[in-house]
Amino acid sequence: MLDTTDFDPAHYVLIIKCPDTRGIVAAVSGYLNDNDISIVESNQFNDALGDMFYVRVVFRQAGPKMPPMATLRDGFKPIAHRFSMDWEIHSLANKPRVLIAVSKFGHCLNELLYRWRSGLLPVDIVCVMSNHDDMRSLVEWSGIPYVCLPTKGIGKSEQEAEFLKLIEDYQADLVVLARYMQILSDDLARRLEGRCINIHHSFLPSFKGAKPYHQAHARGVKIIGATAHYVTSDLDEGPIIEQDVQRVHHGLTPEQLVAIGQDIEARVLARAVTWHAERRVIINGAKTVVFS
Q1: How far apart (Å, rounded) are the C-alpha atoms in residues 292 and 258?
Q2: Torsion over CA: 201, 203, 209, 212 (sign)
Q3: Do residues 15 and 87 lie in contact, with contact meaning Cβ atoms separated by under 8 Å?
């Protein structure tokens, strides 16, 4: 019987983005097999229009010959070079450190905290920041530091400098804007590119500004929804991670639309954060490949 006492129990994920060509899957699976590795989950996507190939492989140790991760990475470099790969290997045991930013609406924050407490959200929430004090009791009850950085009385650049310092002090891997009702400056958005997720309502047509659900009610919309996306310097134009919609009808009040919309927002944001944490999202320019 094989002695598994010294086996690494962790699961790892290999992410690959490269030009499409023959032999990629064979080379990757062959390399893992040669190093006593078992593939737990494998997803791939051939983008025929962009002539690109995307791979996500979750693996674990299967035999005693699996080398240390540094050695495994070094051994993979010739394959990556041959196929011109952008690639990463991560341990899924290392949960991303997440800082959440929120304003006065708590539905998205509450959903994230509930999933985190229940073990359904594979992240470490290290801090919650807000420009108001409304969510303090909820956050501190969960045992998470709460920092209020009000925007009144100081300039936007000063407040953002404190925000950025907070991100750096807590060594946050991911920033989640859980209905944080402040527009990030171009500079801060660029600094956080690829590691900041936002949630906003999305309608057909799209309603901007105050009371979007009331605007939607006034226009008699038939579908409401929400979009989670990565933040870029182009406002609400970042790569989309997840969207969802629900049909509505003329008999609903604006307040009922708000309740339905907030429920969609909370679910969509939670899914987007989960998929990012599980390394299921690959950014490809203005869009994403999501192995959900």
Answers
A1: 27
A2: negative
A3: yes
Q: How far is CA 264 from CA 30, 200, 238, 278, in A?
A: 42, 10, 19, 21
Q: What is the per-residue pLDDT across 92-149, written as a single tens digit (0 to 9) for each?
A: 999 999 999 999 999 999 999 999 999 999 999 999 999 999 999 999 999 999 999 9
Does the pTM surpass 0.90? The reply is yes
DSSP type of residue 130? E
Q: Among the options 8, 20, 124, 236, which is catalytic? A: 236
Cα(266)–Cα(125) distance, rounded to whole angstroms? 16
Q: Which amino acid does the sequence have at 230?
A: Y
Q: What is the crossing angle of helices 254-277 and 212-219, to 10°?
A: 120
Of 274, 286, 219, 216, nearest to 245 by C-alpha is: 216
Do 18 and 85 touch, CB atoms closer than 8 A?
A: yes
Told to judge if 187 belongs to the known catalytic residues of this protein, a careful annotator would answer no
209: its two tokens: 């500004």
Instruction: For the chain, state the CA radius of gyration.
Output: 22
Euclidean distance between CA atoms 95 and 176, whole angstroms: 15
Q: Distance (Å, rounded) from C-alpha 101 to C-alpha 182?
A: 10
Burial class from Cβ neighbours inside 10 Å (0-12, 13-18, 19+) for residue 77 reads exposed
